[in-house]
Amino acid sequence: MIVPGNNVRLSTRDSREFEGTILPDTNNEKIVIKLQSGYNIGIKKTKIESIKQLPKQMKKAIKKEKIKYNKNLPTVSIIHTGGTIASEVDYDSGAVIARFTPEELMGMFPELKKIANINSFLLSNMWSEDMRFSHYNLMAKAVKKEADKGADGVIITHGTDTMAYTAAALSFALEGLNIPVLIVGAQRSSDRGSSDAFMNLLCAVNYIAKSNFCDVGICLHETSDDKSCLILPATKTKKTHTSRRDAFRPFNAEPIARVYPDGRYENISKHATRQDKKDSKIKVKPFRENIKVAILKAHPNLYATELDNYSKFDGLIIEGTGLGHIAINEIDKHTGENKKIYNSVKSLAKKMPVFMTSQCNNGRINMNVYSTGRKIKESGVIGDHNDMLTETAFIKMAWLLSNYPKPMVHKLMMENLRGEISPRSLEKEFHFFNNNQ
Ligand code: GLU
User: What are the residue numbers of the active site?
Assistant: First the structure.
């Protein structure tokens, strides 16, 4: 009975009951089960009063949907790339696996077709942490192809872990974008009662079909209940929680809009509209797949060799502490390494663009307040006064290095190209962030 994949009801000596699927991590001491909520629990065998075997979870047959064209509705193309939104729990192993085909996904959510004509196809079926620059190029080309065929908007379904990197990558790679592109994910797989997949897709289709938005955005839950989704700016957003459905938040920016599942929406911040982009022509400016940009997180007890490792790279982002600092001051007999760090920073900045961001996420780099910052600036590190997220800076630098000569890269890293650097820092942006944590 205690075999991975079996469904059981466990009663414990302290009168608690758990129902779920036995997972392979079960051993001599404990039984691990996946609960219906999707969470796993381990219970010591000595605490178990009784185990009852339940019938095996039957896999529901999923309807595949053929799509009929309705000329009164806009056309939205859904490009699937994988992630939790397109996956389900594998009840034999307890793991979440990528499984649904686009037709199956549409079969699960037929309501979408009342809002738009849906074209849907699979570009890849992968976890987003496995993505490389080549995948950004594939996505950008697929968006252009859909736009050229007449789509009124594109949705990309995507794993949430690196969704914000992809959103930034597409903002840069799709020059002259003239249709809305929303990247949508889910924190809970589509076969679970608590899944956020459907509502996120529903809000994204509604926003594309009904609003005038014309840019790249991210669409996910605003709160942990099913009240609304946020449309978030592609270059200013970060995943801030490992499992909550409302994990995505804008930094140094407000959300673009709030969308309700019934199709109502409220625009929150100024954004590009179809009107602004009506004369634009999409051009894909791809990433060079062999560009090497690194991210180094400044930390106490850093070693110069951590920087030297990147001497053969094309660019470096330093995610500094506070206003943009890294350990460079030799102040006593314990800090000799810091002098070596300074020399390493200086030598890297001679070879490649070295750009400073902050571990604070909120706020702006200011390398003029402390002598540490001024010295770092003198070493050739750029980025003073920027408020870019580290992830966005990483993507932007790789994209600039792919498309522009080095001196231009230095210059353009400091210019706002896709909303990634705010001209001014606004109180309300931080309040939005704070009040929604
Ligand atoms: N790590 C996976 C990914 O980012 C699963 C998480 C998710 O899809 O939300 O693709």
Answer: 84, 160-161, 239
